[in-house]
Every structure is written in structure tokens, then in C-alpha cells.
Amino acid sequence: MKVRLAKRGEVKLQDLVEEVKRSEGFRECGAIVVFNGVVRGVGHDGSPVKKLVYEAYEEVALRRLEEIRREVLERTGAKELLIVHVVDELRQGEDTVFIVAASAHRAEAFKAAMEALELVKSRAPIWKKEVTEKGESWVSG
């Protein structure tokens, strides 16, 4: 599956890289770029983060992630793109999102990964509640 929502610990980065390497178009690739988002230890309010809680409107989120994937592949010329977002309660250092892009050259792979991340943050109905020592709030990005 090229896009998915996962629970904490369900997905390993190396498995995603191997999935890209097994993909049909990988023979033409000379670059893989990986983005692995993790929970920061300091919140937007400057206090220590206890946890982040990610929630999603799953049906729509999956549809949007697939739209983003297709759009980014078309626009950047990348050969493969995987997008996985974790929807769960997460602690400092735990994985939040994985984006793996492969292309013939590094520039396209970097561009695909960056564009995909920005579009996921702006278009996918996935919400993040930050719980810190000072309280909790819904935050963007």
C-alpha cells in the first residue's frame, strides 16, 4: 500500500525503503530520500511535551494522501512515493510520519519528499493535540 495510516510501532522505516526498492519503477532510480518525523521534546509553549495525540478522518485522509501522492509524482518526476502517517498517542522521539521518495536523480527525490510533506500538513484531515506540562492544545503541522 503506497499510502496508509498506522498505529504506533506498526511501521518500520527500513521496511518502507525495501518496499520502494521492490517497486516496478525502481530499476530507473538512483536516489531514495526519506523523511521521518518524530515527536519533539519541547512544545510550542516551550514546556516539555508529555505526548502528542494524532487523530484523523480516516476515509478522507487516505483519499487525500493518495491524491497528494499522485500529484507529487506527476509534478516532480519521481518514480515512487510512499506516505505513512501515524495516528495514535505518541511520546517524545516516536515516529509521526514517514515519506519515502525515489527518483532517477536526487533533486527530484528531495523535491518529492518536501512537497509531499507540505501537502500532507496542509490538505490531509489529520489533527495533532500537543499535551505539555502546561496544558494541551490542538496545533497545526
Uncertain runs with pLDDT below 50, 5 residues or more?
Answer: none
The strand order across the widest sheet is 1-4-6-2
Q: Based on CA inertia axes, which overall geometry fits?
A: elongated
CATH topology: Aldehyde Oxidoreductase, domain 3
Concise structural overview:
It is built from 3 helices and 8 strands; from the N terminus they run βαββαβββαββ. It has helices at residues 13-21, 58-76, 106-123; strands at 3-6, 31-38, 49-56, 80-86, 89-90, 95-103, 126-132, 135-139.
Word description of this protein:
This protein has one domain (3-133): Aldehyde Oxidoreductase, domain 3, CATH 3.90.1170. It is built from three helices and eight strands. It has helices at 13-21, 58-76, 106-123; strands spanning 3-6, 31-38, 49-56, 80-86, 89-90, 95-103, 126-132, 135-139. The strands form two sheets. It has a four-stranded mixed β-sheet, with helices on both faces. Helix 2 (58-76) runs antiparallel to helix 3. The mean pLDDT is 97.
Task: Record keyword descriptors for this entry.
Aldehyde Oxidoreductase, domain 3, 141 residues, 8 strands, 4-stranded antiparallel β-sheet, alpha+beta
